[in-house]
Amino acid sequence: MRMKKILISCLFVIAALSSVGYCQTMNISEKVLPNGLKVLLKEEHKAPVVTFQVWYRVGSRNECLGKTGMSHLLEHMMFKGTRQHGPKTFSQTVQRNGGNDNAFTSRDYTAYFENFAADRIAVSLDLESDRMQNLLIDPKEFLSEREVVKEERRMRTDDDPVNAMVEQMMSTAFSAHPYQWPVIGWMADINNITRDDLYNYYKTYYAPNNATIVVVGDFDTEKLLPQIEHIFGAIPRGPEIAKVGAIEPKHLGERRIIVKRNAELSAVFAGYIVPTLKQQDSYALEVLQGILASGKSSRLYRALVYEKQIALYAGGDYDNVSADPNLFSVYAGVMPGKTREEVEQALYTEIDKLKTDQVTDEELQKAKNQIEAGFIMGQDSIFYQAMLLGQYETIADWKILEKYVDNIRSVTKDDILRVARTYLNEDNRTVGILVPMKEGH
């Protein structure tokens, strides 16, 4: 109850800020080194901590059929040693210095980070500069880690009926663009990857001219920047990276995929290809998503779960931080005794309402307030600040963040109506249906 009151208070604060105007001050120091490495630094002196992140412009969209999953497998191998820092010593070194580290791979980027007390930032400079240029990819370590990734795929996708269905839906939604394959890769492709494949991939994409360093926390820019220039500036520039030229053609009608798996309940997913943060419509779509599918007070959850009682859950997702047009999705889990057909139709009924009638003033302002509150409250985290800078810079330009709140605030009811009519239509839709099967059938 206390957290609910805090959130309500925050929403009132955001509403008040909206009436007087809110000024976002990024205070970012930006520099591109002669070898092409971009450096973004933001001082935050609230606590003696720092996050150091390295973002590489490479993800599953840079792969090719037959060798999918290389970006993710390379992320694993980045922790397996150089001549200076042997296998398994990277994270041990971070932990001995009181920090924590991890990494993540997406369709568009791969990122690595360490969080430290401010006086330990030199550890990141040493470790990250070393593995940017000196990764070994030992053949035995490679074979071992490839098996780890295969098991990860079995657990997260092959043995998860809903995730398996969503994976199939993505491969149906995209016929010409590499978003069609999963970040972790197809199982047969993972088996196809050789040590030399991965090493060549590393040498192509893990270069300063294909990377951005983001540091946020308690440091002095005038002292840290020369250190970064000295250590990372000595790394040779890599080859020029070929752009991904694939463009998904316009859909000529609805696409459907039915996945039969050993599962308890049926599920329905529908995805629409929509613009991302590079286009202005992304802000209206983000607000629309908040109204339609975000949380238990959203239209979908209220209609399907509370009122009609035909779904166990209902919601949606819109990943607008994407290099190329991606999916705006809605979904629902079918209540026992109800049919997939009535749940699917109920999803479309709620979407169609957005095309015929304007949303209410209350709905619009609530969605804007929630988005803005999440963004502003997130600024308390140095990790979140750095992550946003890394994502936006890798996808497009970090400066887009400077006008993020203003762009959300500028969304009108007419904008919601327009984007719903433009993008959320049948011909632009891909549907995935999970059909439960009894074991042995």
Explain the overall architecture.
The protein is α+β, with helices and mostly antiparallel strands and 441 residues long. The protein folds into two domains: 29-232, Cytochrome Bc1 Complex, Chain A, domain 1 (2-Layer Sandwich); 255-437, Cytochrome Bc1 Complex, Chain A, domain 1. Helix content is 45%, strand content 18%. The chain has 16 helices and eleven strands. The strands form two sheets. It has a six-stranded mixed beta sheet, with helices on both faces. Strands 7-11-8-10-9 form a five-stranded mixed beta sheet, with helices on both faces. A hairpin with a 7-residue loop joins β9 and β10 (326-334). α2 (70-77) packs across α5, α10 (281-293) crosses α13 (361-378) and α11 packs across α12 (340-356). The longest helix has 20 residues, at 139-158. Mean pLDDT is 93; it is low at 1-24.
- The total count of helices amounts to 16
CATH superfamily of the largest domain: Metalloenzyme, LuxS/M16 peptidase-like
**How many β-strands, per DSSP?**
11
- % residues in beta strands: 15-25%
- Morphology call: globular
Could you name the ranges where pLDDT drops below 50 across 5 or more consecutive residues? Answer: 1-24
Structure classification: alpha+beta
Strand order of the largest sheet: 1-2-6-3-5-4
Q: Report the order of strands and helices.
A: HEEEHHEEHHHHHEHEEHHEEHHHHHE
Q: Biggest β-sheet, characterized?
A: 6 strands, mixed
Terminal-residue CA separation: 47 Å
When the domains are counted, the total is: 2
Mean pLDDT: 93
Query: How big is the Rg?
Result: 23 Å
CATH class of the largest domain: Alpha Beta
* CATH-derived topology of the largest domain: Cytochrome Bc1 Complex, Chain A, domain 1
Q: Which CATH architecture of the largest domain is right?
A: 2-Layer Sandwich
How helical, in percent, are the residues? 40-55%
